[in-house]
Amino acid sequence: KLGHPSELPPEPVPDYEGDEEFLRRVHHVLLEVEVLEGALRCPDSGRRFPISRGVPNMLLTEDEP
Q: What is the mean pLDDT of residues 21-27?
């Protein structure tokens, strides 16, 4: 969640390659929204990576595989 409405559906729309409005919204979220504080979450492992001052910390600690 970005903290503001992104107007994106939870899943890609069918035939998204030809949906110019959907592609514009995805482009905006991926390339124009800057996250300053928060976290990224891995969908496979559930591990959270903190973001501080716009920089994600994706380093593992010594006790993590």
A: 91
Closest C-alpha to 28, from 4, 52, 51? 4
Q: How confident is the model at residue 3 (pLDDT cuts 50, 70, 90)?
A: low
Give bridge partners of residue 56 from the DSSP assignment: 51
Q: Would you list the DSSP string of 1-65?
A: --SS-----SSPPTTGGG-HHHHHHHHHHHHT----EEEEE-TTT--EEEEETTEE--PPPTT--
Residue ranges per structural domain of the chain: 1-33, 38-65
Q: Which of left, alpha, beta for 46 (phi over 0: left; psi -120 to 50: alpha)?
A: left
